[in-house]
């Protein structure tokens, strides 16, 4: 039982993972010269309010994340590099 609990204690909560992804989205967007999420969302053909939610940590489809990352001109492996 202790072993199972130790395993469960080491699982990162979904919310923490989403916060890391959202922070990375914002970081890369700014690195690419988009000071405004709105301009970036328009460029990516994503509703501005929806993209704002992604940067705030809302859940999104994997296919949406892939489209955004590719639109940033990145590979998924590069996007996730350094995220634990």
Automatic annotation (TrEMBL):
CDD domains: HTH_XRE. Residues 25-79 form the HTH cro/C1-type domain. This is Helix-turn-helix transcriptional regulator.
